[in-house]
Every structure is written in structure tokens, then in C-alpha cells.
Design brief:
about 20% helix; single chain; 3 helices; alpha/beta; three-stranded mixed β-sheet
């Protein structure tokens, strides 16, 4: 369970719309997850979104909206290490939550 909490990644946008889970060969552990299980988890726990890290993002973050570009994202990935390992040429970012505003 700990491995899945740390290393599961969201599916690519098009796959995530209808997907549930699939193997994650990039990490050689855990799974990819899609919109269905995320919606269930959010509804069951009365949550608005999942905030996560541990996955390089070119812009330092990614808003996973999965089908509705104007909706609040189901999952938000934050990656704070710019130019990760001198290899990815990515930006780093942080999330600031101030009085209910991102």
C-alpha cells in the first residue's frame, strides 16, 4: 500500500477519462490511475482534489482536469526540483494556499 501511495501516477489525459488502473512500466512498481477511482475517492471522502508530488512535470506542476478544461482539477501534481538531476530541463514549483485561494 505504501508503494502505491508514493509511486502511483495519473494516467495520460485521454486514457484517464475512462480508465481505472493499469500497470506502470515507467516506475517498475505501482500503477497508473484514472478518473473513475479518483472521483470515487473524492466523493467518498468529501474532498475537492488530490495534491501529489514525486513526478517530474515540465512546468513544475500539472492540473489533471481529465475532460473538462474549465473544471477544478481532480489531481494536482507539484514538482519542486527544477532541472531535475540535470537531465529534465523542467521548472520547479510550489503551491501556496492562502485563505482558500491557490
Amino acid at each position: 500500500m505504501f508503494c502505491d501511495l508514493m509511486w502511483a501516477d495519473p494516467m495520460k489525459d485521454e486514457q484517464a477519462k475512462h480508465g481505472e488502473f493499469s500497470d506502470n512500466p515507467e516506475r517498475e512498481c505501482s500503477n497508473y490511475f484514472g478518473k473513475k477511482p479518483v472521483k470515487k475517492l473524492l466523493k467518498t471522502n468529501k474532498l475537492m482534489s488530490i495534491f501529489r508530488g514525486h513526478q517530474v512535470q515540465v512546468d513544475g506542476f500539472k492540473m489533471h482536469r481529465w475532460g473538462n478544461k474549465d473544471s477544478f482539477p481532480y489531481v494536482i501534481t507539484i514538482f519542486s526540483a527544477p532541472n531535475y538531476c540535470g537531465y529534465y530541463d523542467n521548472k520547479g514549483s510550489i503551491l501556496i494556499l492562502d485563505e482558500g485561494n491557490l
